[in-house]
Amino acid sequence: MGNELPITKFGDTRQQILDTAKCIILGKGFAAVGLNEILSTAGVPKGSFYHYFKSKEQFGDALLADYFEDYLRQLEDTLKDNGNSISSRLLGFFQFWLDTQSSDATTDKCLVVKLSAEVTDLSEAMRITLKNGTDRVIACLTNCVQEGISKGEFPANLDAITVTAEIYYMWIGATLLTKVGRTRAALECAMNATKVRLGA
User: Fold this and answer.
1) Which residues of 184-199 are buried (b: 16+ CB within 10 A; e: fewer)?
2) Mean pLDDT throughout 41-62?
3) What local confidence, expressed as pLDDT, does residue 48 receive?
4) Mean of pLDDT values over 119-143
5) How far apart are CA 27 and CA 144, in angstroms?
6) 87 near 153, Cβ under 8 Å?
7) Residue 39 contacts residue 46 (beta carbons within 8 Å)
8) What is the separation, in whole angstroms, between the first and last Cα of the chain?
9) Are 53 and 59 in contact (CB under 8 A)?
C-alpha cells in the first residue's frame, strides 16, 4: 500500500484515521500494527489520534463499530426490494461474499473474520462490539429469510431464526478456512449448502 490518502466518507480526520487503519489492519491484524504506521500513512499527526481516541483499544472498538455501520448499510441495500425475487437478492449477497472473500484483494476481506480470534481475548469492549455487530447482521438476514418464507419462496417449515444462524455461522467458518486453504472450496461448499438449506 502506498502513501496515498484514502477517500473518506465525511472528509474528517477521525474518519481518515479509521479508513486508513482498516486497510492496514485487514492485511496485518490489530496487534501487529502500530499507531505510527497508521498515522504516517494517513498523514495525520499523533496528537490528532489522541484527540479522537483515548487508547488503541478505544480506537479498535471504534474501527469495528464503523465497519459494521458500513457493512449493514450495504447489506440492507443489497436485500431491499429492487424488483428481483427475495431468493435472488439473498443468494446474490452470498455470491458477493464468496467472490470477495476468495479474491486476492486485502481491502475486500472481512474484518470480523480477521479480528475475532485476535481481539476477543484482548478487549471486552471489542468483543462486545463484534457480538452486537454480528447479531445485527444475523437479524437483517433473518428478516430477509422470514420474508422469503412468508412469500412462499422458501419452504414453509423453515424456522427463519434457526436457519439463518446456521447459514451465517457456516459462512464465517468457510471464510476462515478459505484463508487457511487459499482456495474457493470452502465458500463454494457453503454456497451449495445454503441453496439446499433454503430450498432455493
Assistant:
1) bebbeebbeebeebbe
2) 92
3) 85
4) 96
5) 32
6) yes
7) yes
8) 40
9) yes
DSSP state of 120: T
Cβ-count burial 57-72 (b if 16+ within 10 Å, e if not): bebbbbbbebbbeebe
Residue count (the chain): 200
Residue type, 89: R
Kindly report which listed range (10-19, 34-43, 98-107) carries the lowest average pLDDT score. 10-19
Cell triple for residue 64? 469495528
pLDDT per residue as tens digits for the range 169-192: 999 999 999 989 989 999 999 999
**8 A C-beta contact, residue 5 and residue 16:** yes
| 74: Cβ contacts below 8 Å, ≥ 6 apart | none
Task: Please give the biggest Cα pair distance in the chain.
Answer: 57
Residue 176's pLDDT is: 94
Q: Do 76 and 140 meet the contact criterion of CB atoms below 8 Å apart? A: yes
C-alpha cell at 83: 424488483
Residue 19 identity: D
Distance CA 65, CA 132 (A): 9
Residue 20 corresponds to which cell in the numbers above? Answer: 486508513
User: What is the predicted pLDDT for the residue at 3?
Assistant: 39
Cβ–Cβ contacts within 10 Å for residue 109, how many? Answer: 19
pTM: 0.89
Using the structure block, give the residue that is written with the C-alpha cell 499507531. 35
Q: Is residue 40's pLDDT more than 80?
A: yes
